[in-house]
Structures
1.
Amino acid sequence: MSDRAARVAELEAYHRDEVAVCTRCPLSEGRTQVVVGSGDLAADLMFVGEAPGYHEDVQGVPFVGASGKLLGTLLEGIGLTRDDVFVANVLKCRPPGNRDPQPAEIRECEPHLFRQVALLRPRLICTLGNFATKLLSGRPDGISRVHGHELPLEIGGHATLLYPLYHPAAALYTRSMLATLEADFARIPELLAGAVPAGGPVAPREESLRPPATLSAPAPAAAGAVPPPARAASDEQLGLF
Ligand code: URA
């Protein structure tokens, strides 16, 4: 068995044996099902959103609502489909009422995401909105500041390129943001093709997010960087700042 096939098998087993039956946090009590992730388990391109909503919880698939429709359209615009990529979320279970993920929930759930990244080894990880961006970058910078700026880093001992994007929900909510999201999305093929090599030279802070980071496990700073959950249907949730 090739190394790639072995990692796909391991990821399948991890999803089945660890994620789909997870009871690490109280969200497991209210869910219909765990939304593990969907798409190609050997994809070079991964998208990471925030958390399942109502439709995702019912169907067990991430991004099946309005945001997911936009994600599909954006992918189509660069010649890809959902089957070409792997899509997951920071949280695998739906927070009640679609509220923001809480720091304790992120802390309990993030080992699943880091394991997914370590086994998938995507060349490019597009984080959608603030929660995924802050968690995987390990930094507190808001999405309006860092969107469209690729960041080489290492996760699980493997070089990858983090590419923060506005959350599709933000683009549905604010039309001007859709143009920004489309423009940022248009660079994905070039980034995937290695125009900016994953793990390559790191640009100065002004040109990229920050110096290279090594994330082999959930970074304590990342948990601390997650904003408090006292916001209802906030702009933050929509990745607006
Ligand atoms: N659906 C998801 O699966 N994740 C999001 O972040 C939003 C909608």
2.
Amino acid sequence: MPDHLHPTHPLALAPVAAPPSTVDGFVREFLLNLNSGRGVTLSNASATDKYFALAHTVRDYLMARWLEDLRRQREVQDKGVAYLSAEYLLGRQLDNNLLASGLSEIAEEALAACGIDLDVLRQQEVEPGLGNGGLGRLAACFIDSLATMGVPNVGYGIRYEYGIFRQTFVDGQQAEQPDAWLSLGSPWEFAHPEGAQTIAFGGHTETYDDEGVPRSRWIPAWNVQAVPYNYMVPGYQNGRVNTLRLWSAVATNSFDLRVFNSGDYEEAVRAQTYAENISKVLYPEDSTPQGKELRLQQQYFFVAASIRDVFDVMLPADFELTNLPERIIFQLNDTHPVIAVPEFMRVLVDEKKMDWDAAWAVTQQCFAYTCHTLLPEALEVWPVELLGRLLPRHLEIIYRINEDFLVAVREKFGDDEMRIRDMSIIGEHPVRSVRMAYLATVAGAKVNGVAELHSQLLRDKVLPDFNEFYPGKFINVTNGVTPRRFVRLSNPSLSGLITDALGTGWVTDLERLRELEAYAEDPEFRTQFAEVKAANKRLLSDVLRERDGFEVSDGHMLDVMVKRLHEYKRQMLKVLHIVTTYEGIISGRVAVGDVQPRTFIFGAKAAPGYVMAKRIIHLINAVGSVVNNDPRVEGKLKVLFPPNYNVTLAERVIPAADLSEQISLAGKEASGTGNMKFALNGALTIGTDDGANVEIRELVGDDNFFLFGMSEPEVESLWAKGYKPSSFYNADSGLRRSLDLIAAGAFSGGDRSMFEPIVSNLLYDDRFMVLADYSAYIGAQAKVDAAYADQDAWTRSAILNVARCGYFSSDRSMRDYIERIWHTAPSF
Ligand code: 26W
């Protein structure tokens, strides 16, 4: 060991080698982390100590790869992807990092040697719930795939101190508790306060003469510090580790001693609390923006820090700015990070003094936008009053972008004022606002939807003018899910069966599942497959008994609907099916013997301010408590609604499911990703032709999918004709009896008022046409019962679902983004 390590010395440059991947090596590293990391010995270590020591040990094995990757990425200067997302629904990290580093077995053995049950430590991990639902989980799947494919990528986001709320039920009603996921700290994060960025807000702008060149500058009023926290994103057993960089807000001067000494203690720390608020909590809405100023502060905070980070860390100081499109592409995960566009322009024009047009040309090649919704109310708009007050220079830049854009629109479409007004980034009604989806579309090199149908509707219905103005800009990239977490990790028994048949390659090449088609014809394989499903049901039963005191009955079909609670997803259709089946039995109309025993499992959080959604949750629990305690349907029907549905529960429920409910009104669900996870785990889908259901049905075949309901064009034409939900009520006795049962208070102790708002909404409004699709749905459910009676045929169909859904790997989605949008290549 030289007495002085020169910075270029190999030991200074290259990271210290990882510990030996042996049981002994692991035990040594673990005990070291227990002693030196937690300051305890094995004998007096708590479960939390052991979990943290384990996590630190896994980190130690991944660290060498991570540091090596960071060094090589800086060295080779390949084009990288900066994924900007306000949400990352990561799920628990321990098992995924053990799997990625190939240490699962060694860790299990090493801990057993220390008398520790790995499963006990697993339970210690608090899931980082830094997302609401589909969009956040998709971001997590995508960064996993990019690391596994060796694509240089940094995921940028916000390190919320409080993630998505914890849901409990009080008398069947949703109650929210704060998600203090950091109360014990997180062993997977690395704080880098030295890398803090100063993020400015408020103030005003001024123009000045810069040696004859008129320039503008921003004079902000206040600022905060953005402190980066790095999280490892390990590739699957490929020695690669990418980075997730989440920003946390702290006050620039956290404590004002002068004010403190004057005795105004509140005032002394006001700046700190105010600043910290920015990354305090995730907004729990996943469809209707509240337009709160703090939300815009959050959005600007993380994108400004991320752009600064790219310039300071990723690019050499003297980097030629016009080459930026060869070095970086920013993918905008919905409209939430779009304020990045004027921020990028501000940095290029105001700070780096680039010419406006040259800067705009670069900007239009460095950004791309993914839209994740079809609901008009979910498209964010920011009043110019608020945006101008918080980010005065950015509003000026947006106005300039819009001016130039409308000039081009006028050139192409002539003086069509109507169209000009409709395409303007600035909307006038109800208040003068910036339409963020329009800004993203004008600035983005590409705009993509997340399923074929969704992308078609974006082109034809949501942004038709822009599609006409920008030929070729609108493309599709169908969503995907990572097979590492949602098959290999969450369904080890199915993975074992597949690997026995096909070898291990499928985990990173999911289309290989296609080779399972032949096995669907093999009775022995079908038996093993059915046993895997039965075993997963038993596992789920143990989890739900332990977690919520629920009993999952053997021999029941598990009919599962897990997703955010939203009227367009139509949990109410599922409720009507349960009530119809229940009413049929208690009325004697249906012989109880003919009913296929079913357990209906729900999982769903409602945005706290979404009243109707919370009412529907109450109704589901009310129906459940009546059905589950009615001896007339004992052993036949059961409704289970475990609270606090999250990634960890999904990993238990999905492998156990027989039937996957994907029943949104056609044209409303952008894609769905749960639908893909269920199909890949051998559940059959009952669904409408909506989102990615269409592509799942096309791949698995109509015989292996229970399609029902109106198509999107049929929905449009019924709507255009004037939809009268009550006419369906009058025409369908089964529907009438079910709705009447709810209205009569059968599930509310005779209190007719409790669920009256739900019933009257369906009868007189029913925006998502639950009543119109009811009879088709009930018909399809009868087909499901008939099909399930032939277990062997059902299993064959389930195997074909698995075999034909390799396309829905997020690795394939990433390949599409690379080929169609990013044009990056897996480097070194
Ligand atoms: C500002 C409020 C807000 C917050 C989140 C509006 C909209 C969102 C997300 C876009 C909602 C979301 O999660 N969308 C879901 O994205 C998934 C991933 O692409 C799709 O599979 C789902 O169909 C879509 O609902």
